[in-house]
Q: What sequence folds into this?
């Protein structure tokens, strides 16, 4: 299996290619036309078109949920989007924060940052900012965000615990996150687990659901809630590239499952110091 750095570079190259394609080419390569399923990058995507702030130029159909729909964003909030891509969730979040808020998108792909900035400029948004950086070490100060969102990104990062800990760092006390991601129940066949396309497509980089939730708990978060869960079905013509007919049948009838979950959790409020002797008794 590739090293952590090799996996990150493979993901960077793949999503750079996607960013540089026009929307029509990207949709066709992901079978947006409905002809067949030759890629795994958009088989999990949900329909954003009814959400305020949606901009089609920023929607590359790469998500697995709609975390901004569940994120409880309020006017004036500071929101950070991890793996912001072309800006889709940032612009939806901006519709909730309004002019008084601020949205910061972070992505480690230069082509995505460039595309997102162009989209923000076209829309005339001056309180949406895109920063180049790794989400394990975000280029933002501690205790700055009211809300963190992310859509189908942590599964692409080898060190997921480092990301979760950095989310804790950047959130204000009492702040919260809503993150959509891919998780597993049971084990993927080795033929899928070891394929780069399945990793970049958010499948083989996913971890066990219980492990994912435990990482959030041990990082110090509270009020951990699964806001939404749905089954992810990989089309047969993708699976048949890696599995024999017998292996495919076993995979489909076994107890292994791939799921998209949207998880909410809150950073605890700091304890308030006593104002006078005896007030904390």
A:
């Amino acid at each position: 299996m590739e090293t952590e750095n090799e996996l990150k570079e493979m993901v960077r190259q793949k999503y750079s290619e996607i960013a540089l394609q026009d929307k029509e080419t990207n949709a066709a390569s992901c079978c947006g036309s409905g002809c067949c399923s030759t890629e795994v990058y958009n088989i999990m995507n949900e329909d954003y078109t009814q959400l305020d702030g949606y901009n089609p130029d920023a929607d590359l159909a790469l998500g697995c949920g709609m975390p901004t729909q569940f994120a409880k964003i309020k006017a004036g909030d500071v929101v950070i989007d991890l793996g912001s891509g072309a800006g889709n969730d940032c612009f939806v979040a901006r519709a909730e924060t309004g002019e008084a808020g601020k949205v910061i998108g972070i992505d480690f792909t230069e082509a995505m940052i460039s595309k997102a900035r162009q989209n923000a400029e076209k829309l005339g948004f001056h309180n949406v900012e895109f920063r180049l950086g790794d989400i394990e070490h975000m280029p933002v100060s501690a205790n700055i965000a009211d809300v963190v969102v992310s859509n189908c990104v942590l599964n692409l990062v080898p060190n997921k615990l480092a990301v979760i800990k950095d989310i804790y760092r950047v959130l204000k006390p009492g702040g919260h996150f809503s993150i959509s991601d891919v998780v597993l129940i049971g084990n993927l066949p080795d033929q899928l687990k070891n394929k780069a396309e399945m990793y970049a497509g958010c499948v083989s980089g996913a971890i066990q659901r219980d492990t994912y939730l435990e990482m959030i708990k041990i990082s110090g978060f509270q009020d951990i809630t699964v806001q939404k869960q749905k089954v992810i079905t990989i089309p047969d013509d993708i699976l048949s590239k890696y599995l024999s007919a017998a292996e495919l049948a076993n995979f489909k009838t076994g107890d292994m499952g791939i799921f998209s979950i949207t998880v909410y959790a809150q950073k605890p409020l700091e304890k308030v110091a006593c104002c006078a002797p005896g007030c904390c008794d």
About this structure: The chain has eleven helices and eight strands. The two ends are 57 Å apart (CA to CA). The domain at 4-179+209-224 is CATH 3.40.50.150 (Rossmann fold). The first strand starts at residue 78 and ends at 82.
